[in-house]
Amino acid sequence: MNPQELKTIMGSGLLSFPLTDFDANGDFDKRSYERRLEWLAPYGATALFAAGGTGEFFSLTGDEYPGIIRTAVDTCRGVVPIIAGAGGPTRFAIQCAQAAEKAGAHGILLMPHYLTEAGQEGLAAHVEAVCRSVDFGVVVYNRGGATRFRPDTLERLAERNANLVGFKDGVGDIEAMVAVYQRMGDRFAYLGGLPTAEVYAAAYKAMGTPVYSSAVFNFIPKTAMDFYHAVAADDLQTQHRLLKEFFMPYLEIRNRMQGYAVSIVKAGATIVGHSAGPVRPPLTDLKPDEVEMLAALIDKLGPQGL
């Protein structure tokens, strides 16, 4: 898949980040991961991000990473494209990007580098080094204080790197997002990427970003697709109903603890019979009463079959 094909895919429908399966000892569980992807692939996501944020990329070792991406590519071949998460320090991000390309992934989401803040010149050098290390498409992730890209930085990067084709926003600064879109136009595909992105989906669509990545697709895939279709059709009645009945109470649980944005998704997967095992430290799993609260919310949504 060439970078322009990746750009087209990114802009054409709902995307999601599958969980990464661990066993009771916290080791990668390949067979469980395969079963997860086999379950999710037919539901209609345009692409799946393997080893992304929800897939706990930040906890994976360099030895584990290639096998996880290869498993995702092999399992989903011919059904749904795989975009790999990559990030951390520049040289490690390059290692991940090259491993993902070798494994057959269709592109990467370049997630934040580790810890240290950097100016625009340094951020640009980081992104360009990764882009030049591979031939397939690269999507940058605007996230937190560490990787906030200015429109002029993105413009220079796009001029110098033809395979930089997408921009995912996980910051939520409306003024900045509008500025990026107005500067870059259709040079990029755009993806809404705030945690529990459904809450912000209508607002992002109004800014020129009609697609987003859904974490809840991991355990309520039918509802996730229903919500996406409601956003695409400007069906505010369905959006508001699901926001009121599920997403806002869901946020109340998620916001109880830092890191629960991933933990609550793993809990949801366990509740619906597709356990991905525990989260890895420093994340912590939901407490029993919180699992019960989440189970009650899921139960009200009804069956999630195709």
Task: Please characterize this protein's 3D structure.
- There is one protein chain.
- With 306 residues, the chain is α/β, with parallel strands linked by helices.
- The chain has twelve helices and eight strands.
- It has helices at residues 3-10, 30-40, 65-76, 90-103, 120-132, 151-160, 174-184, 201-206, 221-232, 236-254, 260-271, 288-301; strands at residues 15-16, 47-50, 82-86, 107-110, 137-142, 164-169, 189-192, 213-214.
- The mean pLDDT is 96.
Strand order within the widest beta sheet: 7-6-5-4-3-2-1-8
How many β-strand stretches?
Answer: 8
Fourth-level CATH superfamily: Aldolase class I
Poorly predicted residue ranges: none
Bulk shape: globular
**Biggest sheet character:** 8 strands, parallel
| Averaged pLDDT | 96
What order do the SSEs take from the amino end to the carboxyl end, as H and E? HEHEHEHEHEHEHEHEHHHH
> What is the CATH architecture term?
Alpha-Beta Barrel
Structural class label: alpha/beta
Give a quick precis of the structure:
With 306 residues, the protein is of the alpha/beta class.
Keywords:
globular, eight-stranded parallel beta sheet, alpha/beta, 12 helices, 306 residues, TIM Barrel
Strand and helix map with partners:
Elements lengths: L2 H8 L4 E2 L13 H11 L6 E4 L14 H12 L5 E5 L3 H14 L3 E4 L9 H13 L4 E6 L8 H10 L3 E6 L4 H11 L4 E4 L8 H6 L6 E2 L6 H12 L3 H19 L5 H12 L16 H14 L5
Parallel strand pairs: 1-2, 1-8, 2-3, 3-4, 4-5, 5-6, 6-7
Helix pairs in contact: 2-3, 3-4, 4-5, 5-6, 6-7, 9-10, 10-12, 11-12
